[in-house]
């Protein structure tokens, strides 16, 4: 009887250990995905900021082009 009880305790312990190991692995993947998503968001934010700055700098060029077109009577 003691041997059967000991085997059941060992099997339960192994199963619980396996479950904890699987939970730790899943948590690790969750954090990896969170870091990857944050990096992608940072890249998107930087690209959006760059686009905005490029548009601000190009306003001068557009204004110059409109002024020249008006002087040449094209508009």
How does the SSE layout of this entry go?
Elements: H1 2-71
Protein name: RebB family R body protein
InterPro entries: Killing_trait_RebB (IPR021070)
Pfam families: RebB
Strand content: under 5%
The level of helicity is over 70%
Computed over alpha carbons, the radius of gyration is 32 Å
- Main structural class: mainly alpha
Order of helices and strands: H
**Mean pLDDT, nearest integer?**
88
The low-pLDDT segments are none
Number of strands: 0
Shape: rod-shaped
Distance between the termini: 101 Å
Number of helices: 1
User: What kind of sheet is the major sheet?
Assistant: none
Protein name: RebB family R body protein
Defining traits:
0% strand; 93% helix; 75 residues; single chain; rod-shaped; mainly alpha
């Amino acid at each position: 009887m003691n041997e059967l009880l000991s085997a059941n305790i060992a099997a339960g312990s192994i199963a619980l250990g396996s479950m904890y190991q699987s939970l730790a692995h899943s948590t690790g993947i969750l954090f990896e995905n969170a870091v990857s998503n944050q990096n992608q968001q940072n890249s998107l934010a930087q690209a959006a900021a760059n686009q905005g700055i490029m548009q601000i700098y190009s306003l001068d060029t557009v204004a110059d082009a409109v002024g020249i077109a008006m002087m040449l009577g094209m508009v």
